[in-house]
Specification:
Length: 209
């Protein structure tokens, strides 16, 4: 069982992922895999961006990288061409590891101990979206998202709106998955989100094992 989880910037996707993990799911965080892919490709990324993008502790400054690439669509495309292939290979490895860890040695007919979830903002752009038996898309009110953006990432009103607007092609692409997509509206109340998620999982026949 593979479930897809996606949602717009600051809509509450990771909060939903945490709830799924509490309910027995193994969630594969594509953003985390992207960080690993970035570190593994640090040299070509720095060559592309032409700046010293290291923090004092030696790690790459992802916020500085994001500020550069999201301001220039052509630069973003070139950056993604470096990082995304490595990220997708890591995703394939994580899915294979999740399936292997969940199966006994008697054969592939043994069911998974834990269902798998791909937690990815760009899910609709991935070939893996077609392998998902169901997709949950998290949505939230715009004002709430803007407020969370300021508190979490320190983005101003215009910066946050631009980031939200840049994601709009993803949701248009999501229409191709409408047959297996379920929308979950997050109003910012944790218990309300948990209750809605439980009800949605039950309606999809995907309640925790």
């Amino acid at each position: 069982m593979i479930l897809g989880l996606t949602g717009g910037y600051c809509a509450g996707k990771n909060a939903a992922a945490a709830l799924l993990e509490e309910r027995g799911w193994t969630c594969i965080d594509l953003d985390r895999l992207g960080h690993q892919a970035l570190e593994a490709n640090a040299a070509p990324v720095q060559e592309l961006l032409g700046k010293n993008l290291r923090r004092p502790d030696g790690s790459l400054d992802r916020k500085a990288i994001g500020a550069l690439v999201f301001a220039d669509p052509e630069l973003l495309s070139r950056y993604e061409a470096i990082v995304q292939p490595a990220m997708l290979r890591l995703l394939d490895d994580a899915l294979a590891a999740g399936k292997s860890a969940g199966c006994a040695h008697r054969g592939d007919s043994v069911p998974l101990k834990k269902p798998l979830c791909i937690n990815a903002a760009i899910l609709y752009r991935l070939p893996h979206a077609y392998a998902c038996e169901a997709i949950i898309e998290i949505r939230a009110p715009l004002l709430m998202r803007l407020d969370r953006s300021k508190k979490r990432d320190g983005l101003g009103f215009v910066q946050a709106l631009l980031r939200i607007r840049r994601q709009s092609p993803l949701w248009r692409a999501g229409r191709a998955f409408s047959a297996k997509r379920a929308i979950l509206y997050n109003k910012g109340n944790p218990q309300d989100l948990a209750d809605k998620l439980d009800a949605l999982l039950a309606s999809l026949g995907l309640s925790a094992h």
